[in-house]
Design brief:
Layout: E1 8-12, H1 17-28, E2 36-40, H2 51-56, E3 64-68, E4 81-84, H3 87-97, H4 120-134, H5 140-145, H6 151-180, H7 188-208, H8 213-238, H9 251-266, H10 275-286, H11 314-323, H12 326-331
Parallel strand pairs: 1-2
Antiparallel strand pairs: 1-3, 3-4
Helix pairs in contact: 1-3, 1-9, 4-8, 4-9, 6-7, 10-11
């Protein structure tokens, strides 16, 4: 038995969109830097497919949080842990684990504001927003892979993606080869999972080799010109402003800010952009005349100025509101 209080371990990658969401949650909840060990998983090299990591997350999901169970938090009992790989469940766990009523052995004196919606109506709106952006057809990896709508941009995209895909494929093939040579012993279920992932990588690589380009471009255009505008429109309809549920940050904002940041990056922007610039980049990247409604009017009024509040799109105001927070500055500092 260990004499130290067991700590949670977050397996993450700085380039992972949902890892960023979890890091935002850690900061918003006020967890101390010494309360959670951060361990990088190099997804560009396929480290999440390693036998060691698959014991923690059988579906090779990054981020994954390994947390001590409540009954084993004391220093004089054997520690037991559970792994959480679903991003929604992970962020909800972090929200509930540090509060006035929790039994977390916190070392931080920072406030622990609740990120959970306060009403049933807000909970419904929050769940809708999260479900919209967590859908497979607009997942970060899917959008990155489909971020080309003509052959020239596809060729340019291949320069950055092909080396990563080849590296990930090599890692999977190595593990399968070690199984064949009986260097390692893995279950048939795990080997089938590796073969499935290898097939997915092979399919992706084949496009950059010139196969089914027309099919790829059709899927890409459909995603960017139909699917994404539909998702953004539905998010906007549920959104209040400046945050998803009004004046307080909630779980929905954690998910949305990470996903929207990725969308802005794919459109050629970055976290340092101001809200209006970031959203204009997304509108231009989508094309086809898509624009966000300019339907948010800041409620703040100063008696010391005659300037009138200017209406903006809700997501532009949201971007600036999140950008001003210390959590955003820490997570997107680089």
């Amino acid at each position: 038995m260990s004499s130290a209080i067991p700590k949670a371990v977050l397996y993450y990658n700085p380039q992972s969109v949902w890892s960023s969401a979890v890091l935002l949650a850690l900061n918003e909840k006020g967890y101390g830097e010494d309360e959670v060990d951060l361990r990088v998983v190099d997804i560009n090299k396929g480290e999440e497919f390693s036998p060691t990591f698959l014991r923690l997350s059988p579906k090779a999901m990054v981020p994954t949080l390994v947390a001590p169970l409540r009954g084993s938090l004391a220093s004089d009992v054997a520690s037991r842990f559970k792994a959480i790989s679903d991003t929604k469940a992970l962020i909800e766990f972090l929200d509930k684990s540090r509060s006035a009523s929790s039994h977390t052995h916190t070392t931080s004196s920072a406030p622990a504001p609740s990120l959970s919606p306060a009403t049933v109506a807000f909970a419904t709106a929050s769940s809708k927003i999260i479900d919209y952006i967590q859908a497979d057809e607009v997942s970060p990896d899917h959008l990155q892979y489909l971020n080309a709508r003509d052959q020239a941009s596809l060729q340019e995209l291949g320069k950055s993606l092909v080396p990563i895909l080849e590296s990930r494929r090599a890692a999977i093939v190595e593990y399968l080869t070690e199984c064949e040579h009986e260097t390692i012993r893995m279950s048939e279920k795990t080997k089938a999972f590796w073969r499935e992932k290898q097939a997915e990588v092979d399919t992706a690589l084949s496009v950059f080799s010139g196969n089914d380009i027309d099919g790829y471009l059709s899927r890409s255009r459909n995603t960017w010109e139909i699917t994404i505008p539909g998702v953004l429109t539905r998010v906007n309809e549920e959104f209040i402003g400046p945050y998803a549920l009004g004046d307080q940050v909630s779980i929905a904002d954690i998910h949305l800010s990470a996903w929207l940041s990725h969308l802005v990056r794919l459109a050629g922007g970055g976290p340092s952009d101001n809200g209006d610039v970031a959203i204009k980049r997304v509108e231009k990247h989508i094309g086809n005349g898509f624009v966000f409604p300019v339907d948010f009017l800041p409620s703040a009024f100063s008696p010391f100025t005659e300037e009138k509040a200017v209406a903006r799109s809700k997501l532009a105001a949201f971007w600036d509101a999140m950008k001003s927070r210390s959590s955003w500055k820490k997570v997107y500092a680089s």
